[in-house]
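Closing statement on the zinc ion sub-project.
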Amino acid sequence: MPKCTYCQHKWSWREALTKQLTIHRTMNCPHCQKKQYQTRSSRQKAGLLNMIPLVLLPVSTILDLSIPVALSIMLLLFIAVLMVMPFFLVLKDEDDPLW
Ligand SMILES: [Zn+2]
């Protein structure tokens, strides 16, 4: 789980997930309220994780899966990605450029 770089507060899974699901790049520490930013490598890993459910699209065509089955598997993969995303969140006190 991520730790605040200022107060070393270890964020809970729920705190990390809710902060990651916002569209803002800044994440205020729930303990000290200082601004935190996701590291570039952490953002890249999260981006790759989000691609996993999309990989099923060509696979479902190859395996000739029905649409309800393919959508169900995609939904399960999406939920699994959401569950593990907080474990890849790494924080720093300065923002990195996007690339
Ligand atoms: Zn803090």
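The beta strands are 26-28, 35-38, 91-92. With this model delivered, the sub-project is considered complete and its resources will be redirected to Aim 3.
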